[in-house]
């Protein structure tokens, strides 16, 4: 066969005469994106994605149909080509209404594949469930116990009756794995010879260490506290997160070769510059360990404590003489941890002072409810106006009575003082749990923002120092939930890995297709109430720090997992459309407008066809006709209203689909799904 010489993207190659540009490129390891081409069928050229630019030819060429010629010089990624592809992808995605990922996944700050691991739990495969979880989150048993689960807030099962119990299922599977003979351990890449110093052994630092170690880097964590765990150990009470569980998960990270150095204070035991000098990259994940001031007169009195300071002292086993009457100021989960801990260390009367109503409290409802069950009294619509002392010690709180005014930026109605109306509360201790801030001592070389928080780039997590990165509560937005810090650390580990390899590649959130679903859309699903977590009675649990929750039984967990609606696309990992869409920055919204009629066709016996995801590439039609020789699929309608539907006239035609399935195998988007029948 005659050969021709040509250039593609500056690379000189040889191809067979008559080959298409697409084939010549593919044979030489150069990918040209396409959605409608398959080697088993004739060229169709429907998607327009495979366009390339050839020197001396004014029009863009479709690589799937244009053939090579001697001396041809082809550019598959020129500005003109990319612009054309972006338009094609934007047009396709503007009419593509399939879910790439379920709303649970999208609402998880770490992007944990909730749908994937819940399916494995339903199948009884807890080890595989943990493997899926640990693609994003290395502390599932701990986080499953304490996470406020934004995934559940987004769960569509709530449109049927109640959201999935995602967090509890996570720790069910993780506990089973931890208690097995060989807990899951990820594969570790070959050593790179590069080292990373991580300052801070909390959820962010541990997460970054886990992922960087799996990438073959030597990681050392430096932490100021006696043990690793950060706020998971010193800010979350034992009754919510038993520390033996946390210890087991940390030990698994250490087993990856991560070196852990405790009782190391930056600026005292070692300098920041020394750590930088000893490592190729440094990650600052020091958290926010200082309690914020209430700016209330008298807060310097003995007996006025910060919420996180109080919890840390209890966790360290230090003596805390809080007396008989304790007031906790704040409405978040830290305030709930503080008031419930105060009950357990002997306070006889515990109050929560909150300036709004219960409806506006940011704490989880279950935490509020359980605190009430344990005897905590909530003083809503009150706010400390003054701490009154005697002989330098707190004795009384003067409370300003509040009422709700207009909504603030968060959507909650702003509390407004009722002029001249006050209450007085006798107390032995006040615990202010209104927020946390970072202590940057020892990190003077790192630039802070206007709020006194470490400033890190949104996409690279890089500070003003080129080899120093920062994540978690100590950066940008300040203190948040643990899963948010974990999500940042997981993303930053990828950036740091690229930095160590010589090219600092920023993290860009992948583009995904999302679909709006209503309760009516899900009305055919049978109602199955959410599994309830069994727990110890209030009278029993309030006297000790033993874990409150008793855990799901095997039967309950499997049944709960089977409630999942499996919202995300079954073909997401192999979807060519979304893969190509993420090669470029696209904006499908600029082509918003009417969309094709959407329906799900299930008359194909073993194939489900979802028109929401169909891009009319025609591959299924052509494969059915040219390869399978059945011709059961075809275009219905003309112009924009065209859709693909099956045409079954006889039982034998229906049965003909049963063992073929070739259309589903070539579908580039997941519009066709092989059913388990």
Write the topology of this structure:
Blueprint: E1 3-8, E2 11-16, H1 21-27, E3 51-54, E4 61-62, E5 73-75, H2 79-94, H3 103-107, H4 114-122, H5 126-133, H6 140-146, H7 150-154, H8 166-178, E6 195-199, H9 203-214, E7 218-222, H10 231-234, H11 243-254, E8 259-261, H12 272-278, E9 281-284, E10 290-291, E11 304-306, H13 307-315, E12 325-329, H14 333-344, E13 349-354, H15 365-373, E14 377-380, E15 382-390, E16 393-407, E17 413-426, E18 429-432, E19 436-437, E20 468-470, H16 482-500, H17 538-541, H18 554-561, H19 576-581, E21 600-601, E22 607-610, H20 619-627, E23 633-636, E24 643-646, H21 651-656, H22 662-666, E25 672-674
Parallel strand pairs: 1-5, 6-7, 6-9, 7-8, 9-20, 11-18, 12-13, 12-18, 13-14
Antiparallel strand pairs: 1-2, 3-4, 3-5, 10-19, 15-16, 16-17, 21-22, 22-25, 23-24
Question: Mind explaining what this structure looks like?
Answer:
This protein is α/β, with parallel strands linked by helices and about 675 residues long. The protein folds into five domains: about 5-95, Roll (Ubiquitin-like (UB roll)), CATH 3.10.20; about 105-185 and about 510-560, Orthogonal Bundle (Fumarate Reductase Iron-sulfur Protein, Chain B, domain 2); about 195-290 and about 435-500, FAD/NAD(P)-binding domain (3-Layer(bba) Sandwich); about 290-435, FAD/NAD(P)-binding domain (3-Layer(bba) Sandwich); about 595-675, Alpha-Beta Plaits (2-Layer Sandwich). Helix content is about 30%, strand content about 20%. It is built from 22 helices and 25 strands. The strands form seven sheets. A five-stranded mixed β-sheet has the order 2-1-5-3-4, with helices on both faces. Helix 4 packs antiparallel against helix 5, helix 4 crosses helix 8 and helix 5 (about 125-135) packs across helix 8 (about 165-180). The chain is globular.
């Amino acid at each position: 066969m005659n050969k021709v010489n040509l250039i593609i993207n500056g690379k000189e190659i040889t191809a067979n005469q008559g080959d298409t540009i697409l084939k010549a490129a593919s044979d030489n390891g150069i990918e040209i994106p396409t959605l409608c081409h398959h080697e088993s069928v004739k060229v169709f050229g429907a998607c327009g994605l495979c366009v390339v630019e050839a020197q001396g030819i004014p029009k863009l060429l479709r690589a799937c149909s244009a053939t090579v010629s001697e001396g041809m010089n082809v550019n598959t990624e020129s500005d003109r080509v990319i612009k054309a592809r972006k338009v094609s992808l934007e047009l396709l995605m503007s009419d593509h209404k399939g879910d790439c990922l379920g709303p649970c996944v999208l609402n998880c700050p770490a992007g944990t594949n909730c749908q994937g691991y819940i399916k494995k739990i339903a199948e009884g495969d807890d080890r595989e469930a943990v493997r899926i979880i640990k693609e994003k989150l290395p502390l599932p048993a701990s986080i499953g116990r304490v996470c406020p689960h934004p995934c559940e807030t987004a769960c569509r099962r709530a449109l049927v009756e109640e959201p999935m119990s995602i967090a509890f299922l996570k720790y069910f599977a993780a506990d089973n794995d931890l208690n097995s003979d060989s807990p899951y351990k990820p594969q570790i890449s070959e050593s790179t010879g590069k080292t990373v110093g991580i300052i801070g052994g909390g959820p962010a630092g541990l997460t970054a260490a886990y992922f960087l170690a799996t990438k073959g880097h030597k990681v050392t964590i430096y932490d100021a506290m006696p043990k690793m765990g950060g706020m998971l150990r010193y800010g979350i009470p034992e009754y919510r997160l038993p520390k033996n569980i946390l210890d087991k998960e940390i030990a698994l990270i250490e087993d990856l070769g991560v070196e852990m150095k405790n009782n190391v204070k930056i600026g005292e035991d070692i300098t920041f510059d020394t750590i930088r000098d000893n490592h190729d990259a440094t990650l600052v994940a020091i958290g926010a360990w200082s309690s914020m001031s209430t700016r209330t007169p008298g807060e310097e009195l003995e007996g006025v404590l910060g919420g996180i300071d109080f919890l840390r002292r209890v966790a360290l086993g230090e003596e805390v003489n809080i007396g008989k009457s304790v007031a906790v100021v704040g409405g978040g989960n830290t305030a709930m941890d503080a008031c419930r801990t105060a009950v357990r260390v002997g306070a006889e009367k515990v109050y929560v002072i909150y300036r709004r109503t219960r409806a506006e409290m940011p704490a989880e409802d279950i935490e509020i409810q359980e605190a009430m069950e344990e005897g905590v009294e909530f003083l809503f619509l009150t706010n400390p106006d003054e701490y009154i002392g005697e002989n330098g010690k707190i004795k009384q709180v003067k409370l300003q009575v509040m009422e709700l005014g207009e909504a603030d930026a968060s959507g909650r109605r702003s509390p407004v003082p009722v002029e001249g109306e006050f209450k007085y509360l006798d107390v032995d201790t006040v615990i202010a749990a209104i927020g946390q801030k970072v202590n940057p001592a020892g990190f003077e070389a790192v630039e802070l923002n206007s709020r006194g928080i470490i400033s890190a780039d949104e996409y690279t997590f890089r500070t003003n120092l080129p080899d120093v990165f920062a994540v978690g509560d100590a950066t940008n937005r300040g203190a948040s939930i643990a899963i948010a810090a974990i999500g940042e650390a997981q993303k930053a580990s990828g950036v740091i890995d690229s930095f160590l390899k010589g090219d600092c590649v920023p993290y860009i959130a992948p583009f995904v297709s999302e679909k709006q679903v209503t309760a009516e859309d899900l009305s055919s699903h049978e109602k199955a109430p959410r599994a309830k977590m069994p727990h110890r009675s209030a009278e029993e649990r309030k006297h000790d720090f033993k874990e409150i929750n008793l855990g799901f039984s095997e039967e309950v967990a499997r049944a709960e997992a089977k409630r999942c609606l499996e919202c995300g696309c079954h073909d997401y990992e192999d979807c060519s459309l979304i893969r190509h869409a993420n090669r470029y920055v696209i904006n499908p919204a600029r082509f918003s407008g009417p969309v094709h009629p959407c329906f799900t066709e299930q008359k194909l016996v073993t194939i489900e066809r979802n028109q929401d995801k169909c891009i009319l590439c025609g591959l299924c039609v052509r494969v059915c006709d040219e390869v399978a020789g059945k011709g059961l699929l075809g275009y219905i309608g003309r112009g924009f209203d065209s859709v693909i539907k099956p045409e079954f006239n006889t039982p034998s035609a229906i049965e003909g689909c049963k063992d073929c399935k070739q259309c589903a195998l070539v579908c580039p988007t997941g519009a066709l799904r092989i059913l388990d029948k």
